[in-house]
Amino acid sequence: MTQTPKAWIRERKNEFYYKKAKAENYRSRSTYKLVQANNKYGFIKPHDVVVDLGAAPGGWIQAARKMTGKHGFVLGIDLKPIEPFTQEYIRTIVADLTEPNITNQILSFLPRPPDVVISDAAPNVTGVWEVDHACQIDLANKALEIAKAILKPGGNFFVKVFQGDLLNEFTADIKDNFESVRIVKPQASRAKSSEEYILALDLKKGTKTES
Fold this sequence. Notes:
Layout: H1 5-23, H2 31-41, E1 49-53, H3 59-68, E2 73-78, E3 90-94, H4 102-108, E4 116-119, H5 129-150, E5 156-162, H6 167-177, E6 178-184, E7 195-203
Parallel strand pairs: 1-2, 1-4, 2-3, 4-5
Antiparallel strand pairs: 5-7, 6-7
Helix pairs in contact: 2-3, 5-6
């Protein structure tokens, strides 16, 4: 079957970021999604404390490490073990984001309340769109709950979502809690994918929940 021009361009782009990640020693091509978003919006800064939810295999940790520098701190959490990093300002833990005491676990590893919570967590895709979309929104909601409980006042939140019927309600919930909210589609995201990211800046006063 002959490829359409758009399909050919898409495959070349996917191959480009895969090879780029290998060449630059990043653990995943998704690293560039965070890099491109932060280059444009600057929500992770030097000296920041960053919590990365759903962090395996560690590509976003690598990117956040460079953004925060050696005076920052990055904590990665995933159900799967993450290959350790040698830097003392990076920690990883194996944990379930749905555990009742997850916020206390996270806070116990941090030097201070985080400036930013990021989440690239995704469900095991079934191929049934309604199910996958609902599962993704469930994960994003859990990430939001954690972010509200642990972020410092004025903190930022960056989370993966899938397009679908539940997205508007979830976006409205985020707008209730943050001063500025926008949908972001990094160039490194596959064009055909329904994947998007919500960037929420400046946690509102009075919306922080108890951990």
